Every structure is written in structure tokens, then in C-alpha cells.
């Protein structure tokens, strides 16, 4: 068994192969030098250092690789797959034979279209090495420009603000996190950023980036495709009703002056691109990532793909083909794909789950926010609002909330179970904070 | 030899739920199972030190509120990634409606 990619997905898969009873050799090939680690802290406490620990946790305990008999090949690139001969080919010419191969190659940060010397001035955040370089730039008073108000951009902005930087965030869409988060939750998070002094500007795109006297000058303009497709889907066209369809409180500030913004450091968080080069070269089907079926099998029955690099049909969402860039999905698919590589043959149907930490806020989402026909809300006495998305048939398709600390965790976890059970909850108890969500589980057969 | 500390009243915890308890600067989590049995574990997740009392209890499982690591709170056993290290557990005794945990 050979696993390409030693991130969350590949590493979990390697251990699960052993756990699930595979007795033969397991080889895990990773591109980075370091021991496999957790990525989510890179945009959180690794940048702020606030928890006295700036190293991301390792993905396994000391000695665990040896105990599991996994061969870890670090700092290596798989450059080819000999499908006929069943061998993975490394850059240095080594050939590793496989019976089954897993592509867990992940995704890489999408690059901004800047050329020349300016391109070197833009930071991205994907690896531990990226985080260490960026952390050094987040000095008090530093002018930090963040391009993109998605999870990564906003987490970087929050970390930079916490470290005393002057932070400006530029987002092309009319609101932050338009791809992944219901509007009302994005509003709450945007308010928290502005309260912390972050200058958050939406509806603006980078026009040009130049370097002058040691500073990066950013010129802004209207987004080229205004608004982008992700924005148009939200929320009116989908016929949402309830609070989500209320007029947004987002303002779209226009540049108050023609002068460009000057930054010491520019960080781009403009999405991720699935790492499909190896799969393409091997002639595997590609469709917004490595195309796999519901068992996570590629167009070659002996090659599997999982995690950020693959697109798969999700049975909870009508078999719609999706690709997830999420830690939890990487973990879930890593475990599931290992068992399927050993012949388990079970469709992957875990509920998508996302979270983000920004300042003292945590937001959690179970399910797919763009899948629902209408939204109903539960206003809890502690001020937290849980938003539930229901389908045309009344089925629960997502739940999303933001709150301080871990205030939203229990309700989102319960919603996740309801979504997995394809529950059609009665909206009355769903919206009544006096009715514990747990009681709804009893009406939803498992 | 354990020292028995009165942690709470049985009524303080709903069935299938958890509450926090502090003693001499150390955090604990006290559980009431669906069968009305009481258990105690360390108060923080072994993964990233999150407070477990904010997490969901289902049957014998506590789920960390942050990254969804799961433990069997009756044994402390970690259920797999992201939690790799078992949770310390403490003996519990119930007397006249008071829940005592044994520490030390």
C-alpha cells in the first residue's frame, strides 16, 4: 500500500490501513521535510503564539510510525505512476511497487496574478514553513494587507490584529466568506473584525501590485466579474426565506481616494487549487480535482484519492459532486479510503464539517450552506443564534452558528447527527430554544 | 490512596451530560450517563487542551467541542484521531445525592 501525501488525509489513511488489518508494507510519501503535522493551527496560534506553543501538533505520537510499521519517506516527490507496472516513481528515480495507491496530494494556495519582483512580496499560507515566515512579518505596527476574506484570509487578519498590526482586508465579493458561510454569520464575524480595528473592504479587487521604497503598493478596482458566481447564488436566487433574506448590512466601501494602499506585507488567501498534476500525468479522470466515485476510487480501480485533492459525489446531497477543503473531511476520508482500499466497498457519506477561529469567536458549520431552500433560526437565551437550512422536502441540510469560545459546539454536533440521519425535523421545536435539540434525535431514526 | 472530594449534587447534571469541576487549580469533568451512573475524567481534551464540559455527551462518549475528538468517558479511552492519548479518569462515589471524586 502506497500513500502519496503526508498531510492529515494521507497520514490518517496510512495508520488506518494498519488498524484495519493490512499486514503488508505501507509507504507514506510526503513532500515536506518535517514530521507530518496538523495544518489548522498554522493560521491560528502558530501565528499569534498566544498559547505559548508555536509548533503545530504532530499527527502521531512518538514511535507510532515504527509501531505501526509504516515507512515514511519525507521530502520526496512522486513524479509519476506506472499504472501497468503498479509502481510509484519518485523524483530521484526510486520506484515503489504498490498493490493499491492512494493520492492524498491535497491542495495548494491559489496564486495571485502578479508578476515580476512583486510576486515575491506576496505571502501565502499552506505549510508550516509558510507560517514561520509569515509570523516573523506580523510585528506590531506592521501594515498588513490581506487579499481575500475567506477562512484563511480572516484568520490571518485576526492573528495579525492580535499581534498589533494595522490590518486591511480586501475582498472581491460583496461580503466575507461568501462561499462557505451563511450571510448573517459572516456579518457577525465582519463586525468583530471591524471592532478590532481591521479595515475590511468588500466589493473590491486587486488591480495592481507594485513595490516602491520598500513598501508594496496595492491599487484597487471593481471586481472583474462582479459579482462572482458564488455570490449570485446567495441568497435571493435560491429563494431563501426568513432572516437570511433580510437586506444585508454589508456596506461596499469605495476607495475614498485614488491613492493606492501601502503595505509592508501582503498575504493572499484567495482559495486553493487541488493538486492534480500527478493524477493528470497518470491519465486519471479529473473533474475539479481527481475524480473519484462514492468509494473514493479513481478511474483506475487500484488507485484511490481522498481529501482536498478529490471531487466525489455526496449521497446526502443528491449525489452532487463536491470537493471539500476541510480538515475534518481529510480525516474522515483518510479513514474511509483506507478501509475501501482493503475492499470494504462502503460509500463515503460523512457530513461535511467546517470550523474557523477568529479572535474570541468560533464558527462551526455542519452540512453544505448552499444546499438549502430556506433557513430557520433558533435564538438561544445566551445570545447565540443557530441557523438551520432546510431543503424543499424539509430535510435538514446544514446548521451553522458563531459564538464565543465553544458555545456553539453541542448544537452543531447534534445537528450533524440529524443531517447524517436525513432527519426532517419539525421547524417548531427546531426553532424553540426551550426544546433541547437532543429530543429531536429520538424522532429521527438512525 | 484517593482523597474523596465532594464535586457536585447528582441533580446538578442532566442525564447524558457533563459539567466542569475545579479543585486546587485542576479541572475535572463530571458525567452523568443515560443510565444515571456518574463518572469523572480530566477536564481538558488530550489533543489541544479544550474544556470538555462544552462538548456533547452521547451514550458513553464525550466529544471535544473544538475538533470533535471522542473519548469513552467511562474508561477514558481515546477513539482515534485527532485524539491519540487516553483521558485520565477518576473514581466516583455517590452518597446521599452528593457526587464525590477520588483524586491523588
UniProtKB/TrEMBL annotation, chain A:
Keyword Iron-sulfur: no
UniProt-annotated stretches for the region Disordered: 227-253
FAD/NAD(P)-binding domain sequence ranges: 2-334
One Pfam family, short name: Reductase_C
Keywords assigned by UniProt, alphabetized: FAD, Flavoprotein, Oxidoreductase
Requisite cofactors: FAD
InterPro entries noted in UniProt: FAD-oxidoreductase/Apoptosis, FAD/NAD-bd_sf, FAD/NAD-binding_dom, FAD/NAD-linked_Rdtase_dimer_sf, Reductase_C
Residue ranges constituting the Reductase C-terminal domain according to the UniProt record: 353-441
UniProt-listed PANTHER family: APOPTOSIS-INDUCING FACTOR 1, RIESKE DOMAIN-CONTAINING PROTEIN-RELATED
Protein name: FAD-dependent oxidoreductase
TrEMBL record, chain B:
Keyword Iron-sulfur: yes
InterPro entries tied to this protein: MocE_2FeS, Rieske_2Fe-2S, Rieske_2Fe-2S_sf
Pfam families on file: Rieske (PF00355)
Organism: Streptomyces ureilyticus
Lineage of the species this protein comes from: Bacteria, Bacillati, Actinomycetota, Actinomycetes, Kitasatosporales
Keywords, in A-Z order: 2Fe-2S, Iron, Iron-sulfur, Metal-binding
Ranges where the Rieske domain occurs: 5-101
Signal peptide residues on this chain, from the entry's feature table: none
Protein name stated in the entry: Rieske 2Fe-2S domain-containing protein
Domain of life: Bacteria
CDD domains: Rieske_RO_ferredoxin
